[in-house]
Here is the input.
Amino acid sequence: MIIHAKPFTLTLKNPFGISKNTRNETQTIMVEIKKDGFIGFGEACLPPYLPETQKSVLAFIQKIDPKEISYPFDFELIHDYFNHVDSENFSAKACLDIALHDLMAKIENKTLFQLLNSNPDKMPYSAFTIGIDKSDMIIEKVKQSSAFRYLKVKLGSDKDDEMIAAIRTISFKPLYVDVNEGWKDKRKALEQIFRLRDDGAKLIEQPLPKAELIDTSWLSENSPIPILADEAFQTIEDLEKLQGVYKGIVVKLMKCGGIYPASKIIEKAKMMDFKIMMGCMNESSCAVMAGAALAPNCNYADLDGPFLLTNNPFVNPKMADGKIVLNNNAGIGLVKVE
Ligand code: MG
Here is the structure.
């Protein structure tokens, strides 16, 4: 088995100018693992607000001895080995975990969703992200969302009301609201949530700073729609602490270390009655389609990453009826752009 890893920069589609909260590129590491004539693809996505870098991911991969990973892959053992090599480096683990899943499914001539026992008929609708921006830009972004049934709007700035009003001039799609810890006062937050609910919001992601557990549990208790933890949730160990504080969690492969840890989180979170959103970063089709294979086991999906890029190295996933389509190719189902 041979592991190849190379740095790659994804560029974000932004034909309408860049707001101050929007970056125009994301650093990644793209991985290929080869065995017996098969290639498994993986990706580590590295947003600047998280500690990992291209350098740290490459350093982690260099410490991995392929001889320690025997076939057929036992992902519990593989992650024990990864965690023994380093307790952090979640994106680095995710890119190897994704590539190994793609590889194993290809060797077994199965789709990834078959390997994971996911039912593609249960795919939830995905949401199209509308970042913080001026009204005219918001309207242009909403116009790009025609393949999606839900919009995910980023609030938490002084433009909240203006943004919702701009969206509602041209779209009545239901909203997932992501505040990214942007609200500070729980009572004002609750008033805002009631107004948003009346305006079609179905859930609120991370309204208050992640350290504010007591205020968040008050908000959760009184909110008419579910409050989900994103920044406050990373790995399976966080679930106990968040029970009774949030009604749901946002799972991302890059936060938790890949498909195997995400599937364990989903299993446990379901038993604890959490609602689950499968989310993504600014990822290419590789990591997003890997996450999409688990999305049928979740309540919500926010998997628009590849649709926001100009240089996705893989063909974009197909959308049908506002949902990502899991194709029947072996593995993740990726096709490289030539
Ligand atoms: Mg979020």
